[in-house]
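Re: the 180-residue chain
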Amino acid sequence: MLHETRPAEPLSGVRDTLSACMQCGTCSASCPNAAFMDMTPRKLWRLAQLGMLDEIERSEAFWLCSSCYTCTLRCPRGLPLTQVMAEIKRVVAVHGGRTGRRHGNFYRLFLNNVEKYGRVQESTLMTCYLAAMGSPSLALSFAPVGLKLAAKGKMHPPHSAMKGTLKPLFAKVREMEARS
């Protein structure tokens, strides 16, 4: 009789990395964005340790991480918490529901935009994001913000002064990621 193999748990790498976490709360106390998160990094780590992907996915906390590395620098166990947060974003973008894919789309398009232009080009980024989402109502919901930004002179057409300057950096990161 053939046995079906169960797919690997999406959070297994995160759980392994966080196995030494003692839930001291230093990460949450150090995080400059914790006040804006719906749950603290400490609680997020505990949910990850327990493999509770559905609970994590319902949170917005990990999307608010600015990758400042403060949690990593202050962790008494020396855990790479910023990398863990990035892995959680990746897992939710791949294995999560509609919200995870929406956020994942935005971050992927954001990085593509920075790679192409050397800095973020907001108008191009939002155009690509709204096209990828395929929702005219979503595009219309952003119209008031776009009009306010345009009225204040904050919307600029893409310029090519820095175009392509970050491509070698992105290529090196992809190379390093492929090795790990």
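The chain has two domains: 12-96, 98-180.
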